[in-house]
Write a structure and sequence with these properties.
- This protein is α/β, with parallel strands linked by helices.
- The chain has 2 domains: 37 residues; 102 residues, Glutaredoxin (3-Layer(aba) Sandwich), CATH 3.40.30.10.
- Helix content is 45%, strand content 20%.
- It is built from 5 helices and 5 strands.
- A 5-stranded mixed beta sheet has the order 1-3-2-4-5, sandwiched between helices.
- The longest helix is centred in the N-terminal third of the chain and has 22 residues.
């Protein structure tokens, strides 16, 4: 079985689980996911394995590499949260101070840096603060 086949099988399993959740009528699960299987809020990444799990589990994921001390990161935070809340993309947040090795592996040289994952693969990189319309257009190109 190829890696692509494995991902397709995992996605199909996730779809079936979501269908079961929908048929049960639950709005938010114990894991914090909504009825569509999306996290109820941005996901705070706990390491490389967790990042891979999140990007593989959802079709479109915007990964926001940020730092608490970064002014532009604070400016863009409500924008990326709005993208998540609108259903534009699942948002994953990576604190570069907490996860320095992960940021280095992803070649993050400055913050904010955002990586757009589609079907588990990084397809776009954005460095610097961007407005909501720019990020929505970026996601729309790949959705």
């Amino acid at each position: 079985m190829t890696e692509t086949d494995e991902r397709d099988a995992i996605r199909e399993q996730k779809r079936q689980e979501l269908q079961e959740k929908l048929s049960d009528g639950g709005a938010v699960s114990e894991s914090g996911d909504d009825a569509q299987g999306r996290p109820s809020g941005p996901v705070h990444v706990e390491g490389a394995d967790h990042l891979e799990e999140v990007t593989d589990a959802h079709d479109v994921v915007l990964v926001d590499f940020y730092a608490d001390w970064c002014g532009p990161c604070k400016m863009v935070e409500p924008v990326v949260e709005a993208l998540h809340d609108d259903g534009t993309a699942v948002v994953a947040k990576v604190d570069i101070d907490e996860h320095q090795a992960l940021a280095q592996r992803q070649n993050v040289r400055g913050v904010p840096t955002m990586l757009l994952y589609v079907d588990g693969t990084p397809v776009e990189r954005v460095v610097g603060a961007k407005d909501k319309a720019s990020l929505e257009a970026l996601v729309a190109q790949h959705a």
